[in-house]
Records
---
Amino acid sequence: MKLYLFKNHFMRKLTRSFGLLFLVGLFTLSFNNTLVAQDGATLFKNNCANCHSPAAKRGTGPGLQGFWDRIPGGDEEGKNAWLINWVKNSAAVINGGKDAYINKLYAEYNNYPMQAQPHLSNDEVLAIKDYLISYVPPVADDSAAGAKKNPFIKEEKSFFTPTIQWLLGLSLLFLILAVVLRNIKNTLQDSVDEKEGLIREKRAFPKNLFHWMGTHKLQAGLIILLIKIILLTKLYYWTLGIGVYQGYQPEQPIKFSHAIHAGENGISCVYCHHSAEKGKHAGIPSVNVCMNCHKGISEGTWTGTKEISKIYEAAGYNPETGRYDQPEKPIEWVKIHNLPDLAYFNHSQHVVVGGIECQTCHGPVEEMHELYQHSELTMGWCINCHRETDVKMEGNGYYNKMLSELKAKHKGVEVFKVEDIGGLECSKCHY
Amino acid sequence: MGKQKKYWNSVQHLNNDPAFVASAEKEFAEYIPVDEFLSSETIQDASSSRRDFLKFLGFSVSAATLAACETPVVKSIPYVNKPHEINPGIANYYASTYYDGNDYASILVKNRDGRPIFIQGNDQSEYGAGVNARVNSSVLSLYNSNRLQKPLKAGKVSDWKTINDEVSQKLKNTVASGKKIMLLTRSIISPSTKALIEDLKSKYLNIANTVPGGELVHVPYDAISCSGLLRANQKSLGKRVVPNYRFDKAKTIVSFGADFLCGWLMSGQYAVQYGNVRKPELGAAMAKHYQFESRMSLTGSNADVRIPIKPSQTGKALVLLYNEIAKKASAPAMKSAQLKGFDAKIKQMANDLWSNKSKSLVVSGSNNESDQLIVNKINHLLGSYGTTIDLSTYSEIKQSDDVQIKNAIASMQSGSVGAVIVYGVDPVFNMPKASKFAEGFSKVPLKITLSERLDFTAKVSDYVCPTNHYLESWDDAEPQKGKLSIAQPVINPLYDSKSFQDILITWANLPLDYYSYIKKRWSNLGDTAFWKKSVHDGVASYSSNSGLSLQISDADLAGAGEKIFTQKSNGIELELYTKTAIADGMNADNPWLQELPDPISKVVWDNYITMNPEDMKKEGYGFQTNIQQEIPASMAKLSVGSDHITLPVFPSPGQTIGTVGIALGYGKAIVKEQVIGKNAAHFLTSNSDGDIQYYRTGVKIEPTGETYLMASSQTHNTIMDVDPKDPEVGRKIVNETTLEDFAKGKAHYNPDITLADAYGDQKTTKELDLWAEHPYDTFGHRWGMAIDLNTCFGCSACVTACHSENNVPVVGKDEVRRNRDMFWLRIDRYYSSDMNQDVAEEQGKGAVAMYAEMEHPSAYPQVVHQPLMCHHCNHAPCETVCPVAATTHSNEGLNQMTYNRCVGTRYCANNCPYKVRRFNWFQYDKYNKFTGVNPAQDDLARMVLNPDVTVRSRGVMEKCSMCVQRIQEGKLEAKKNAEPVKDGSIKTACQLACPTNAISFGDLNDKNSNVRAKFSDDRAYALLEEVGTQPNVKYLTKVRNLKESEA
């Protein structure tokens, strides 16, 4: 009971200080917004980059390098007017069908219309124009790339590779075998010698060792006991690890980086893993979800077009024509978090009802380039969490009756653990 | 009083056979085949020494260790384009329609990750939301690897192109040369298919052009014919149809051999209606049910008054009934014959019918036109038409005309038929031998079978084309005029098969595919929105005029009377019937159905001769009545003229003395190169009208001296009531009363159980409790189930639903025989004996004489069906004896079984008073003994397994979990919606399957829940309450609509 009270007091303090921090943050952000609004590069990134590349590369729409020379309108003023009209009223231009330049582009891009951007002011359109004209494609700089290390290129493996380990193990085995054989040979030789009446000097090691053991029984016994204890302890801990794949990091068919998607770009986890809110499986996103963004983004940070083209291959997408006309080929990902068949786990229970952050179980995914299993995923690990976590009962109609019953039963206690409502029972996970 | 009636669960039990008593004391069979294994020759010959053994041991330990180190690689392959409505791990439900020529049902198919895994009734359908065992098992037939996978030509694998090219050309040539194409199908209730057949007819008529005789004729054929009924209705109502029987409007129901709860016409609908009028709460309005029949049918076992009769006497009994009613209605009487022993009962019945005029219903399962004409006349006199027989709509669920089929076979013989296309039926298997179908068929130049399996007809056909399972194709159905339903595909065809309609369309080169046919037809009924709604709901209706008009003439009746007098009774009579699970045998290779115990005999995986035990003991027979694990049944040769069959004889109390029964539909399925049962179709004959008769007279039965081991699920599972001689041991297992007694109040028929405490004071079981109460009595949920014994009539749909939902393994005949069946939910069938304390008192018999009398088998007992599953006792005896805490009690009142903790001591099963725990003896999904028996061994059939339920391994105990996966799912849904669990939102699999809602399930802590109301009902009682287990399952007392004097 004391623990609960302390916790509440502490939490209240914490919330108060966080609230202050939040307000300060809000002010800073709003100032930043007004400053950045004039920046053509940002405007381009926010409004256009989904479909257009500032360089010559074709995306959903044409690459915009050198667009200023291509567009109609005559002099600078005319071109500006044409551009503003086109960007803000693209549908009208296309439907009008009078603009020869647009008609040609429209046909070239599979009759896929450009989204009109009426919310942009004229100045903003021109700011984007200025940015594009001044845009210089970055020159591939080896030294700069070297500074940002590609996380997918693995460091040199340590000396003790599995092969070396195997070889060491084998040589140890042979060594023991050799000693044993030598021992047998010596014993046989001794008995032969004895029969023939030959007297030989006492052999040195290991005959001496056995002799020593025979004469110093207590010491030898203690040493053997110690060795046994060490070995059994090792064995115990080793068996505990059977079936625990913490740190499991298999190689995936595509070098997908969660650090870039969830970390750098801040994409919400459930944008891709949307069924985590609906059902049992969080689900690996289908290729069409990847294509939502990657139709426009065809180059990766470290891998160029190599990895992203694998998505195109899977989706049957041809980036040259912008059509889905190739055969589809599903991607075979390697599942990292595997629960045994006998355990039932439901994501939506934890994410929606429990309000648990993904990171609680999956670790700092936003920092992982290559995903690995962060938690043990053992039953003890589950149970521990069920013992420590409060159930979010307030405000959930399902729990209303249960909460009042529990409060009536445990007077003075306001918050209850999963354990208190049967979260440790077998049939909650095993059926 | 009824409750003092003595029950026994098999003939062995009744006889109190010493072997039975011995076996009843043990939960498990003694016999474990260790000796068999060790004495195997291969093992004795094997030359593995101790040293070898150690080597193997060392090797396997190290191999296992190494294997354990390796991380298994699990692939996860997402969609390329994920369909919007599909989310992995979340089930989708699609409305569809089941129709196989016997049963119609509007269904919901549960699809998980693209695989149909469970079938339940469609609650939008007015025919009720229950589905019978055949319907809910049909999902397993989808994954049957016996299905045809490729089209065959002359028995060899071919391809569609070759077959389509050749057949369509040959069909054209057939009509062009003036010969007929005969389309022999099961009854067609799909309006779109009917339209298609009409189009095919005109198409081929066009091809034939002016050549006479070149045409396509459609012959519907039902394996179980109702031709006589249809012809009688043609005369009485103007159409060859089945009128809309309304059992729910009847106060008195009289059935002459019609098994209307199980297989007779629209039995799914009738079962729902019957359930509605069999509630004792209706008081005097509760329907009274009389049944005349020769074998104990499921319907008969539920009748209030069951009158054993010989099949040949049905007509005469009908005439007697007619005359009684005619007397009251002052209608002309018919010539009648003497029928000994029936007069009193028929008089009483006629009084009952007449006093409930226009609220009574008479039906007959006879396939004699004359019988049916009299039935129609009786119903007419009783004013049933327009009330209990609704003429505003009708059903064409059965269409075959036995005379038309006879003529069709004759035309095959004569050579006027150039091609036969068979679909959905297996006439070589189930047509009477006398009709010489096989002979006629072989004379046809072009024989084509469209079938799901390589059945008997397919084997003798030139071309065999695989058709889709009904879950793989579009279809529609009109089970009754004006009431439509749609069958939508829920999975792509698993094999290289096509729908029957699309095959015909391709051959006739018609412009539209079948899906467009359906849409086109439905576009006449409504717009796109209507179509979409119909596909979503699965059902739709339109207003129509049935066109039925009553035209019952006395002239017809006179002729019928004459014919009835030509029916002669002669010696022993044989009735050919269909069983609940197997029906006509079309799905005989479905292991769930084969393992479903017959509701009456409880026998699995066999057919047999049913005979009254009184008869079996007669001189000259001496058949074994005490059939057990190691006590085989006697074989007998049954012959009528030149037809004969040799089958085991099984005791069936209630079977009319002097009659026997054999189930049809067997002799088809093959498991492990063994044919299951024997086909008895060759006994079928026709009457003078040409209608197929399902009985034979003049039967000779001789014991062959051979024996045969049979498996039945209920010679074990006794519920402690083993010593009828000791009144202290007798317990309230099935509580039963009469309607008269019921009206007097709870104390009369369901008194509280009290026990004497140490001081001799009578106390309720709760007061005498040894244990502390569970916390959930005042907190959270407490799940409970109530089963109404009045509306449960033992149809066993719940048993297969439970198999389907909970991945219950199929174990095969041999294991069932060894008492190792795995049913989580079983239905115990109890026969009652007529002796009870009241009778003994009347006759002045003492206790010893009374109990001795109770041991005597009564020839015609009453029957009770009692479903039994884990009772989730609050104070569960199993929980206290588990050494590893593998079975524990949950916060919500569930008795949890944790397989991964269980070490298989079986203490829990020994301590369970209800005997509902099942030990998993083998790896049914791997061990080769179960290949072909257990569907989980098959890669394809494994797809039917429910992914939310663990497939248990060898060595663990298992039992009913009250569908805890559904409870958890329902709770989660409520939590996500932030609302309390609504009563009725969580349903167990057995509850979903029940056609009469006999099973209620819900939260006992919810004050407004249905199950709580049932628990506090006066009829409610807990099984073995005196043991103090405080089960969370209760039964509602069975009330028979009888007076005390009749009981």
Note: Residues 639 and 700 of chain B are 5 Å apart (CA to CA).
---
Amino acid sequence: MNKNMAKKISTEPKMNYDLNLLQDMYKKMLLIRRFEEKAGQLYGMGQIGGFCHLYIGQEAVVVGIQSAQIDGDSIVTSYRDHGHMLACDMDPKGVMAELTGRKDGYSKGKGGSMHMFSREKGFFGGHGIVAAQVPIGAGLAFSHKYNGNKNVSITYFGDGAANQGQVYESYNIASLWKLPVVFVIENNKYGMGTSVNRSSAGENLSDRGKPYGIMSEIVDGMDILAVREAAIRAIDYCRSGKGPYILEMKTYRYRGHSMSDPAKYRTRDEVDKIRKTSDPIENIKSLLNKMGVEDKTLKDIDTDIKSVIAEAAKFAQDSPEPSEDELFTDITIN
Amino acid sequence: MTIEILMPALSPTMEEGTLSKWLVNEGDSISSGDLIAEIETDKATMEVEAVDDGKIGQLLVAEGTEGVKVNTPIALLVDTNESPHATIKNIADKPYLEKEKIPSKPTNDKPISIEANSSLITVREALRNAMAEEMRADKSVYVMGEEVAEYQGAYKVTQGLLDEFGGKRVYDTPITEHGFAGIGIGAAFGNLKPIVEFMTFNFAMQAMDQIINSAAKTLYMSGGQMGCPIVFRGPNGAASRVAAQHSQCYASWYAHCPGLKVVSPWSSKDAKGLLKSAIRDPDPIIFLENEVMYGQSFSCPDDDNFTLPIGKANIEKEGNDVTIIAFSIMVGKSLDAADILKDKNINAEVINLRTLRPLDVNTIIESVKKTNRVVTCEEGFPFSGIGAEISALITEKAFDWLDAPVVRVTGKDVPMPYAANLEKLALPQVDDIVSACAQVCYKD
């Protein structure tokens, strides 16, 4: 990390936090973590096929940003999307049943881990091609502006996607047309097995918005309060019609790129160190402790979440496979 | 010394233009680089500069004259010290051309009969009318693309839309096909109905991932939640002398992909009726136009509610001896071939496919059962082309009705050459269709 960046990272909350809000954020992050742990187990049991990209370690990013959104905002992300769906209040049962490829999954079992959607919850996918969601997110912002509503588009992508050309085509148009889009770069340091240092020229990915006149910030993505505060600034800016905003979230994934990645490109020590010193869930847990929340309360929350996840896992395994008729449905509308 | 100033060619497909305004008078002294006239082509109004110094001796073509052929002398330039009148005497055989003396259409054109409640309009006008009518009817329809707004369209297809609908409905994009195709798809997911113009479909290859992976597949991957009501339109296929990277037919590329509908009009009626249906359709549509067709006029219904169904072919000419199956520009060439075939006592049926996906298999098969012989026509490459698909379908569904193997008339299996003679060889011509029909009728 360079010095400039360290200065920009906020570590202490500047705002007064409501205990309920903090507990809600804790619950949501924990829900995502327990969900992903279970997904990892089910993958190991052969219940989930194909690619499965886990979000463990990055929970503070999506939960912090989601806490600053309003109804009607649209969200779009890459294939590492389970956490985003749970943050949007999509049903863990429907998400897990999609992972197992069953008829009660959000896409009737036809999308899988990387391709899930919920118009109702404002979640527009779940996109499997690196950075394909970035112009789509700018297009969703275009629709908000065109319709004259006050909603914004939250468009997530990873550090790997940040080198794709369409990101910059989208920056250019978003800035030219003042589209209400927050570009959230989830920089977890590795695009699959290649570290950001080995793939990306220049100092910071967020700097790449500057030539387009796009405001940007670097944020400690392991600190949910820093994420929330930055998200409020960014979303307010977009909602007020000033154009796009970039948030580069410095985060970390604990698991491999996907379930089949042995992660030989980094040391065990590197992962352990981050888990011990900057885990986003441990961070908020200790804050809640300081604010007087007892360990037992936190443990009860965890127990409740574990049962929600166990139920989702059971549902996902009990749900039948889609009927064979589904093979030829949903290709076109008419 | 007298120099003839000739009608210039101002675009690859320009054969004639309108001399809309003279910017000089007879007797004016001009220098190289001075503006002398405004010429309207099928794409734009352009100012013409003098390339020599001298004095305008005589203007040979009146202001407002339409259909002035490229390379026609339009004015005479004389030495500055020469009197213009002396020159006129020297050039006695150059008549002063009056506006009405030049026919606006080539004389060898067949007369076009105008149907009831219809007007003679160009394919270009039909496309623009379709967009304007649908934009009036539905506020969620908007247009975006390179040069579609202030420039009035690189090929003038979107002419006038900015004036009527304003900048909130008509968007000039930067030259970033990948980016603006994706933005259009996102807007369609957001319940708008974008019409995305590609200046030509050659450039849409930059946007292929967004078109196929995002627009075509998302409905399926979302279990039916994520419809994408978008139209990607623009000229497809060969224009004229623009060589390999700008002359390709993408029909089979897009028709290959489930999730897309692929439409390709021939006439003005097709253009209007199909584009209106495409804009109203809830699915992503690839709308393949043809630059050479833009300036051609056909009878087209005036009704704002006139549409043609997607997925339905049209029999342009009935016949009993052989079925010619074509789309886009090849429909006209097939009809020309059918005329020639009459003299050989071959009565050809010509099917205009109009839509390539979903293909109107029924109309094809019924025609095969009647004629028992088939020739397919397309500008695209032969390998894995539309003709290959049709041939396979006929083999599967009507093999016993065939009296001869299906013959494909296609573009040659080479990148498009630039040289005029080679380009002509590479593209399927009327004679190729005539020969193919004679072959399947065993009359060659």
Note: The longest strand of chain A covers residues 181-187.
